[in-house]
Amino acid sequence: MARHAVERIGQLQNMFPTPYKINTLCLIQKYWRYSCPPVTINAITQSGAFVVQVICEFGRFTDFATVTIQRIVMHPAKCFRWRLLGPQLYAVGVLSIPVVAITGAFIGMILALEGFNQFAALGQEDRLGGIINVSVVKQIGPVLAAVMVAGRVGCALAAELGTMRVTEQLDAMRAMGADPMQQLVVPRVLACTIMTPILTMYSNMLGSLGAWLVTVKVFGVSGTDYWYWTAQFVSWREPMGGLFKSVFFGAAIGVVSCYKGFHCRPGAAGVGQAATASFVANFMAIVILNLVLAQFLNAFIRWLFPNLPSVLG
Known about the structure:
The chain is mainly α. It contains twelve helices and no strands. It folds into two domains: 2-49, no CATH class; 64-304, no CATH class. It has helices at residues 2-14, 24-35, 38-74, 76-79, 82-92, 97-121, 128-166, 169-175, 180-218, 223-233, 237-262, 267-304.
């Protein structure tokens, strides 16, 4: 390739008399344009720009999250002032209870409705409650509650902080000597971190009751068998593991939503894009964290209880 380029440049130079020889650099540039079409160059440029943008975005998010954690660790007394934290706890937790509870109940009922025929075909319908409840408290409940919080609260946080950025309220706070991270971000992150596990408990409870309603009242399975096999399948490890994961889900929702709001683009369209990007990023973070934490908790439980008995025998 290099030899061919040199020969081509030599041929182009011989086409001109000596006083009018073209600069070698110009010939190289012309040959490069001739051998590599603009479409290829544009594709390479766009790919490189995308990689650089992703790396820069990740760096900004890491810096934002580090500053948030630093504010919480270095100034815990300021973080838990009720004047700032109380309204956020109410907005994140209390106002989210109806949607989380209703969604959890219907998920439990749907699982019972879809799984009963398969269990009945094997003669194991009495164990359906144990399977549903261990699935709810270990995986479905925490993820469902986190997704509801991300949709109802995360988008609102991103839109609220994005509006403050667009209207220059954040700059006004800095001009008056206030710290927007301490006043705005930290209370919202703490509220999401504290209230998501509580909402997870509501989701677990309503999911279990919804499954009981369909399994016992609709399909006629004994209520004693339902709760007996639930006690056999669900130990303290499953609910505690789900609550442990929900803490990380809530922290991720708070940090990601506030970051998207703080770095939104100007105008009303920028605020809308920030809210949409907040939900998408939160959902991806929840799914990835769930996979990583599930693997970690399973390995930790196996290490902590190497001779753990199985319910299935």
